Fold this sequence. Notes:
Blueprint: E1 2-5, H1 10-23, E2 33-39, H2 41-54, E3 60-67, H3 73-77, E4 80-87, E5 95-102, H4 109-113, E6 123-126, E7 146-149, H5 157-166, E8 172-174, H6 175-178, H7 181-194, E9 198-205, H8 210-223, E10 227-231, E11 237-244, E12 247-252, E13 258-262, E14 269-272, H9 278-286, H10 293-306, E15 333-336, H11 339-348
Parallel strand pairs: 2-3, 2-6, 3-5, 6-7, 7-8, 9-10
Antiparallel strand pairs: 1-4, 4-5, 9-11, 10-15, 11-12, 12-13, 13-14
Helix pairs in contact: 2-9, 5-10, 8-10
Amino acid sequence: MKIDLTETTSSKINAALVQARRDIGTPAIGMVLTLVIVTDEENAYDALKSANDASHEHPSRIIVVVRRVSRSPRSRRDARLDAEIRVGTDAGTGETVVLRLHGELVHHAQSVVLPLLLPDAPVVVWWPEGAPTDLAGDPLGALGQRRIADTYSSEQPIAALGDRAQAYAPGDTDLSWTRITPWRSMLAAALDQQRVSVVSATVEGEDENPSCELLAMWLADRLGVPVTRALSQGPGLTAVRMETKDGQIVLDRADGALATLCMPGQPDRAVALKRRETAELLAEELRRLDPDNTYEASLKFGVDRLEPAGAPAAATAEAPADAPADAPAKAPAAKPAAKAAAKKATAKQ
Length: 349
């Protein structure tokens, strides 16, 4: 069921939601959270589709906030709220409210959203595009226990990581971090099996890909070893190579779907490591509402890693002799992530 309301108010929207639930025979509210999506008209369809898919795992009230830019001075002065309500099969397993804000109302979106939040339920705010630097300081972000951005959508993703670290507040997270969850799980499992000390590591991936940077920061922070960022043609993150005293541990994914795990003294094995859709990433983030301390530590380590000037340039690395035959050739390494070098450079500032 779809209901269109023009020049409406939050109280009228709430009344329409109650009536719509009665009309379809489900007067009870069985949703576990409120998901607020802040986007523009161009990205609203894709964001809502991903949220509806994720709602099969997390039934929720989805509130889409679309700020409509007014072209004329008169239109910018006139505040107007239009809404589209979806319940039943048109709204996944929950209910959806699409809010279109016009005129001065675009600067006061929180006053419209607040009355529509589910009572006594957690609130998650998601910016598919154009997230503010300070997520918690944003008026809409202040409503949420969790705030989800996607640094990959920024014009300068690597610089945005440093800005995110400076403005971090408990509850912030990033879909660029969520994308590397399978990589982190696989690498941690490999080290549990080997029980060896890692001497250094290299992370290969596309240039300006924040997921690659975050994985390098995580390794450098958790292992306390030099980690080098090397460039490849992608897609996305392509390989991680960890040097140990017993040999090299390599997790190589050249095609974005299937990876090869190579460990000393063991046969090579194929592991599924496909690139996931936004709906899967969003569903993963909605599983936890507590602060992600590991993300915080990795992100804040990255500030020191990205800012030092005059760090020694890494030499071009050749593919090791025991690397898989289909491993992509490594481009000249860039932006070393050695923890010791970061501390030394920071001390000079």
